[in-house]
């Protein structure tokens, strides 16, 4: 069972990602991702990225294709197991041209050096209503 304090820390961890990326503070992503994090962008055709440096480099490689705003909503903890905590969130991205899109973040969050960090993130694109791919 997670404490209320752990739940709040996990929700704030998930929210912090958007603030750091949108502000261009990519050197601070270690506050969100573990050093050995896996970042799965295969739904975008961008492959798997392993390690904190690769997560940062993938954001830099996208350049102006990155959304102006990452808005994370509907965050729920779906399971607690020996590997950590499974967290699912919905994301809305707003681009410079005003276009927007939605994704689902599936995260494995675990304690690293006493702090919660994302150790695995898979981002799935949502293109059709009612859960149809």
TrEMBL record:
Q: Quote the SUPFAM superfamilies the UniProt record gives.
A: NTF2-like (SSF54427)
Q: Mind telling me which InterPro entries this protein's record contains?
A: NTF2-like_dom_sf, SnoaL-like
UniProt domain SnoaL-like: residue ranges: 4-121
> A Pfam family this protein belongs to?
SnoaL_4
Extent of the signal sequence: none
Which named protein is this? Polyketide cyclase
């Amino acid at each position: 069972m997670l404490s209320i304090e752990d739940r709040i820390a996990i929700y704030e961890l998930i929210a912090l990602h958007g603030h750091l990326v949108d502000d261009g503070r990519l050197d601070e992503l270690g506050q969100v991702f573990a050093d050995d994090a896996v970042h799965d962008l295969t739904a975008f055709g961008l492959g798997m990225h392993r390690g904190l440096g690769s997560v940062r480099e993938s954001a830099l490689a996208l350049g102006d294709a990155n959304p102006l705003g990452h808005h994370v909503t509907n965050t729920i903890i779906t399971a607690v197991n020996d590997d950590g905590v499974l967290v699912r969130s919905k994301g809305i991205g707003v681009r410079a041209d005003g276009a927007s899109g939605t994704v689902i973040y599936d995260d494995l969050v675990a304690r690293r050096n006493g702090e919660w960090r994302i150790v695995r993130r898979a981002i799935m694109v949502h293109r059709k209503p009612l859960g149809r791919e």
